[in-house]
Write a structure and sequence with these properties.
Layout (H helix, E strand, L loop, with lengths): L1 E5 L3 H11 L8 E5 L2 H11 L3 E5 L7 H8 L7 E6 L7 H6 L4 E4 L4 H34 L13 H4 L15 H21 L17
Parallel strand pairs: 1-2, 1-3, 3-4, 4-5
């Protein structure tokens, strides 16, 4: 996970960073922003998976920063940081698609629950997106559709592709080769599942001749 913390209070940021270091979850990067403007720029550059945003910051407010950041990073999940259980901008936050809010001082258990829930949901979403990509790619390879019929904004139209072909030694017996191919595909699928993210797709395709 890539996480962004946007809050003008140093102690809030330091406390969250300390808690994130203790939750024992796969966090690759934690970035800090002290203003709404700084947050938007970090979103543009870093595409965080999760952003914790103080609702009131100097200059651009938290909600305005989220509004500016959403088009830049559509996959980011947003969580409001607030000192009040009922805040004035709740309806606006819901309209913007904010996933929830954390009360200051933040509870370590609540923080961990939010991240675990995010990971579970995100894993299912990425797997579904990847399966859809595989289906679209197979339809193209099998001649069931054509790129000219694809939506201009679809992933297969906008993506850059890198490909590899795996060849199984034809001197093996047919039975052994089939067993090797099955084992290889199973291992490859496990690797694909473990390495999905929000911005890339990985597809393992069996060609129309069965290879």
């Amino acid at each position: 996970m890539r996480i962004l913390i946007a809050d003008d209070e140093y102690l809030v940021r330091a406390s969250l960073i300390s808690m994130l270091g203790e939750v024992n979850l796969p966090i690759d990067l934690i970035e800090e922003a002290t203003t709404g403007e700084e947050m938007v720029e970090m979103i543009r550059q870093g595409l965080p998976d999760v952003a914790f945003v103080d609702i009131r910051m100097p200059g651009l407010s938290g909600l305005d920063a989220i509004k500016a950041g959403k088009p830049l990073s559509p996959q980011t999940k947003w969580f409001i940081l607030t000192g009040f259980p009922k805040f004035d901008y709740a309806q606006e936050a819901i309209r913007l698609g904010v996933s929830g809010y954390l009360l200051k001082p933040v509870s370590p258990d609540e923080l961990k629950k939010i991240l675990i829930d995010f990971m579970d949901e995100n894993k299912k979403q990425k797997a579904a997106q990847n399966k859809q990509f595989e289906r679209e790619l197979m339809a193209l390879l099998y001649g069931l559709t054509s790129l000219e019929f694809e939506d201009p904004e679809s992933f297969v139209r906008r993506a850059h592709f890198t490909g590899a072909i795996f060849y199984f030694d034809s001197f093996l017996s047919e039975k052994t080769r089939a067993e090797r191919q099955f084992a290889f595909c199973r291992s490859a699928q496990e690797i694909v599942s473990e390495n999905l993210d929000n911005y890339n797709r990985l597809a393992l395709i069996v060609l129309s001749n069965g290879e």
